Every structure is written in structure tokens, then in C-alpha cells.
Amino acid sequence: MSEIPILKIGDCLLVSIQVDMHDRLAMALQDDLTERIVRDRARGVMIDISALEIVDSFIGRMLNNIAAMSRVLDAVTVVVGMRPAVAITLVELGLTLSGVRTALNVDKGLAMIRGLIDTPERVDDRRER
Amino acid sequence: MPDSRVRIFSLIEQHHEAILADWLGRLRGGRGDGQHRDPEAPERARRFLQCLRRGATSGEADDISGPEWAPMRELLEDTSRAWGMQGFTPTETATFVFSLKDPLFDLLRREIGNDADQLGREIWLATRLIDRLGLYTIECYQKTREEVIGRQQQELLELSTPVVELWDGILALPLIGTLDSARTQIVMESLLERIVASGADIAIIDITGVPTVDTLVAQHLIKTISAARLMGADCILSGIRPQIAQTIVHLGLELNVVSKATMADALGLALRRTGRAIVNRAASAEPKAGT
Amino acid sequence: MIVESDETMPVRTSDDVVRVRQAVRARSVAAGFSLVDQTKIITAASEIARNTVDYGGGGTLRIEVLRNGQRRGVRLTFADQGPGIADVAQAMTDGFTSGHGLGLGLSGAKRLVNEFKIVSAPGQGTEITLARWK
Question: ipTM score here?
């Protein structure tokens, strides 16, 4: 069981990353989330990174992995709360996070998930508008 | 290196009151050299002598970077800044310092008098010291100018990248001038901060004012658009002139963003995307409905 | 050029990588970096630190805060006695989207800093120096 709490809101899972994660913690989170998606039959996963001051390629890969795994399990992943300095650095780093949807905050993230789950179109088509 | 045969430092300490009185007299007398329009000049002269005595304890005339010269350096920095702001030229400030030579040389001639060699050495030492102090004020002036220029450059960069909220949740970023990497950093920071502050869903990036779009500029645009997307805001590119469109195709640039020819078109799209529609008011019965 | 501070720390475990981030943050705050500049150098440090742990068999990081006239900077030197990199040029090409490999951290980290130097050869370990100036 990872030390990062996973909350259930309706048919969505909310993860709020508050600590500077070391690698073991990140791996544990990936495992836990995958398990919870199946167990709770979640349709959406929201990852709140508003407390993260640094997102490096390892964390980026973790986010990509979580998005990919949840997609396979027919759930939508949205990452919310990215800080401006982090976004600018990621862009400079060349880390595209192309498999991950992003929203400004939890409210917009939930709205985005609702929009994606409730419309009949397939999840993949909405990636780049 | 402190030389025990050197007398100037002990002379300064012994006769500092006389030196100050002599110097003040000359400043007041309004002679060409050292005349100063600032009423604070006498007070500064007093402090100058104090700092000179302090610095003299180091026995160093050539190197004023030591701790004994710290009060003098601070005084010179302060004087240079204050007088610079009052509009005095750096030459005037430096001349104030140089004018100390007169009373100092008079003192040396009085005390050392007959020994020509010694007198020559002491006057040369005094000259080197006073020159160094005067030049320090010029350096300070230079540094202040550079700080001002740096600040103005920064302000100019920020002023030329305004972010405007066109409507609830719709931002516009009209870019004027070339987009180099320094500018791109400022643009990204302004835009992203505004996205957070306004909760915007859409950012319209208008490049009407960007003269050319080459591979580098395109990269900068792509970076900005990617950064905005990571913050959850979609981007629309507008203001694409025909030549720009040709260049983009020629260079095979993949901008990967919706683009519109004009900001008006972009705004229309943004409004539709955010679920709004603009309707004409139905013609009312009153003939004088507002124009 | 004046060295205002100089410290060395081990980079052997993933916990050390977290400590590296904290230490680089502390130094870059001390050097007066803006938030974005801090984020960039800490992220670059995180990338290289991870490489040092994962591929270099563990090593050390030396953090120096420098002053060059008016400008201040932070210089990081990562060193390990690992297998070394056979083809440095290859390792420097972008590799983020192509999966695992040494290229993942290096080219990205280079873009985040002002100065980047890498000395590595098979059997001779690796030394990577990065510097960011305010």
C-alpha cells in the first residue's frame, strides 16, 4: 500500500501528490492506482500535482504510464494543477506528456472527466483538438 | 604594502581638522575646482575626511578593497548615487573628490618642505590615492547606469507582451516584434500566470505583429502553446498573414494548433468552443432603439 | 570567479536523488535564482542524479555557488566510477519518447542549463558538469 492516499469521488479516483516522491513511492502509486481502478470500477482518474515543485522525466513517465494503464482499463486520466514553472521546464526539457490530458484545477478536471465519460465518443479521438 | 617611511597617513590623522577646514573653505569659496552646488557638500566632505582617516589606518594607498576602506567605499557609492539622481555629472562628483588634493598637497608642503625626495614621494602617493577614490565614484556611476538599463530592458520586455482577457475564460496574447528565446520565456511566464489567475480555457496567440516566422520562431511558438496546454488551456493561433502561411508550408513546419487568419475569427471560434453564441437583438417596436 | 560555497554529497540511492533536489534548491535560492530558473536547474539535477544512480553505479555530486562579478551561478559536478558511456554523441540525442536508454536525461538536462560538459569513456566512469547563471 503506497503512502499516497487515493480518494474515491463517485466513479472517479483522486490522487493528490503532496510529497517529493522517491522512486519506490512512485512505483507503489502506479500499482495501487491500477488495482483501485479495477476494484472500484473507476471511469476517471484525477492526479493533482499542484504541490509538486519539480516534475522530471521519471515522474513524467509515471504519469504517462498511469494514463496508458487506465486507458487500457477504460478509464480517463486527467492531471491537474501543474505549476507554471513546472510547465515551462517540462516544455524546455522536451517532455511532451502527450498521452496525458491536463486541466487547470480539480473543478475543471472533474468537468473534463465527466465530459469524456458521458459522451458516447471514444476516449482516443479527443486527444489533440 | 605599508611603508614605514610614508608619512601621509599619520599626517592625515594628526591634521584632519585643519585639512577639513581648508577644504571646506575652498568649497565654499566657489573656486572652479571642487565648487559644488549641493548644500550637502560640506557634510559629505566631513564624512569623507572621517572615512579617509579610517582608511588611512590600513596604510594602503593603492588598494581600497580592504575592510578599513569599506566606510569610504560606501560613502562614495552613496554620494555617486545621490548626486547622480540630482543630475550632477560623474565628472562633477569625481572632481569633488579630486579637489581634496589642494589642501592635502598644501599640508604636505608645509610639513615636509625641504626634503624634495620625500615631498615628491608623498605627493605621488596622495595623488594615487585620491585618483583611485575619484575613479571609484565613476565606476559606481557606471554600475548604476547599467542597473537602470537592465531594469528598463526588463520592463520593455514585459510591456511588450500584454495578456488581455477578451471574455470570461478567453485570453488574448498579441505578440509584437520578433520572438527570441529570452522573449519567449517572458511570454510563457506572463501567459501561464494569467491562465492561473483567470482560470482561462482558451488562449488566442496573435502573431500579426511578428514580422517573420522561421524555424526558430515556430519552435518558440510551439513551446508556448505546449506550455499553455499543460496548464489546461487550449490555444488558437491568429493573425497569420499570407506570406507567413507560405513560409510555414515551405519550411514544412508542423504547428499542430488551430489557426485563424484574424483575431476576430479566433474569438468567434473561442466563444463557440466555450459554449457561447452571439445573437442579434430582435428589432424592437421603438424606433429609437440604441444605435 | 569566487566560490561562495562548496559541498559534496553522495548520490547512491533513490533517497539520495530526493536529497540532491533539496540541496540544489537550497543553493539556487541562496544564489537568488528566480522560481523558473530554480525549477530548471533542480530538474536538470534530478535527471543527472538519477542517471548516476541507475547507470553509473552511484557516485557523488559537488555543488558550488559561484560569483563572477555581478553574476551569481550554481555549478553541479556529478561523478561516478561506472561503466562510462561508449558513444557520448549518441547518448546526447533526444530519447524521451523512444523508451529507455541513456539518452533520456542528458539532452533534456542540457537544455535547462547554460553550461553543460560531459567527460566519459568505457571503463573510465563519467563526469558531468552543469551550470546555470542568474
Answer: 0.87
HSE of B113, CA atoms in CB hemisphere, 13 A: 3
Superfamily of domain C2-133: Histidine kinase-like ATPase, C-terminal domain (3.30.565.10)
* DSSP letter for each residue of B150-164: HHHHHHHHHHTS--E
Residue B202: strand pairing partners = B170, B234
Tell whether pTM > 0.95: no
**B212-220 average pLDDT score:** 90
Beta bridge partners of A105: none
Flag whether residue B197 sits within 8 Å of chain A, measured between CB atoms. Answer: no
Cβ within 8 Å, pair A104-B223: no
Identity of the residue in B226, B233, B234 whose CB atom sits nearest the CB atom of A91:
B226
Other residues' Cβ atoms within 10 Å of the Cβ of residue B157: 16
In this complex, the chains that touch A, judged by 3 or more CB pairs closer than 8 A, are B, C
B229/A102 CB distance under 8 A: yes
CB B207 within 8 A of CB B220: no
CA distance A129 to B257: 8
Task: Provide the residue range defining the domain that includes B15.
Answer: 8-155
Q: Determine whether the interchain pair C96/A56 forms a contact, defined as Cβ–Cβ distance below 8 Å.
A: no
